[in-house]
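FAQ: What does a multi-protein file look like?

Like this. Sequence, then tokens, then the next protein.
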Amino acid sequence: MKGENRMKKLLRITIEGKTYEVEVEEIGVEGAKSAEISKTAPVPTTAPQIAQTPKETPKVAAEGEIVPAPIPGKVLSIKVKSGDTVAAGQVILILEAMKMENEITAPVDGQIKEILVSEGQSVNSGETLLIIG
């Protein structure tokens, strides 16, 4: 495998708002036992660590079921109001992320106890959007 012509690609990635340029080398799948790490391009020590935690299910607060933002984005429209009764799977909010409209649905049947965001507001991943009781 040492004599093969391997393709290298320069990629730009953004993690938590910081942009990094990385060079990757494509290796063959057949017979490949491990990836080689280039000693000429060390990984910067300032790169943020990406947590390897499993996705959490919505938490149940004392007041009810918390509905978190699954991804960062902007609240385009809120389809319910405080006091409304919703069914599991019903669209409750539209969140714009990466120029796409994402339907956020109720995870459980219940009544809207509190809406913690407003239309036009930017939210982070995991931020509580509303509570269903």
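And here is the next protein:
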Amino acid sequence: MNRTTTVLTLPLLLGSLLASGMAVAQEKDSYTYATYFYCDVTKQERADEIVEKLDKPIYDAAVTGGSITGWGWLAHHTGGKWRRVQFHQAPSIDALLAAQEKIGDQIEAKNKAMSEEAGKICNSHDDYIWKVVAGNATTQARGKAGFSVYFVCDANREDQADALVKQIFAPMYDKLIAEGKLTTWGWLEHIVGGEYRRLSTITAPDVKSLLAARGSIVAALQDDPLADALTDICGSHADYVWETKSGKP
């Protein structure tokens, strides 16, 4: 197929994908509150220790009690200026925010001095609320390594991007999971936060497996006009590789 034919037929292909994507059965709603921290790199391991000792038991109890469905603490491996991510998940925004307040109060009450110490190490942050559009990341435990792509998108065509991911990328991700090469994947939409409008996540047992799986996806989609269409809609992005330090499930 030459480039001219691709350009002429692409709007029809996108329309077809959008229609079929909207017909895909949706899982229960899941929202993620993510705080992306800027930290003192000479002391960030101490923040990890505090989270493990102070935050983890409270977040784990919240998952067990059902006020949240999951949480995690991620450490920067490769990417931009964010050094740590703390996130929790719930079926609604109300539940998400209620849990944030309750857990924050519990952490302060348990050990205010330790909480303040962590705040001084990671003393600046960006907050986002995401809604899961597709993937299995809400039902499976993360792998030890994760690749996140934060996209800046054309807000008028984001629904087309969602349809493309469900139709083109989802089967590839699911196949890699079935083969044990990936652990989880997710595609999330922006609800509240900064410039990033969509988030793509994949996780794997280790960084080597993660990068190999991502490389196979990139190679398979090279010169694919539908992959190019997604790039046209979400034309700017930031890549991060994260290491999972703690979390549940």
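Q: Is there any per-entry metadata?
A: Some entries carry free-text notes. For the entry above: Confidence is low (pLDDT under 50) at residues 1-26.
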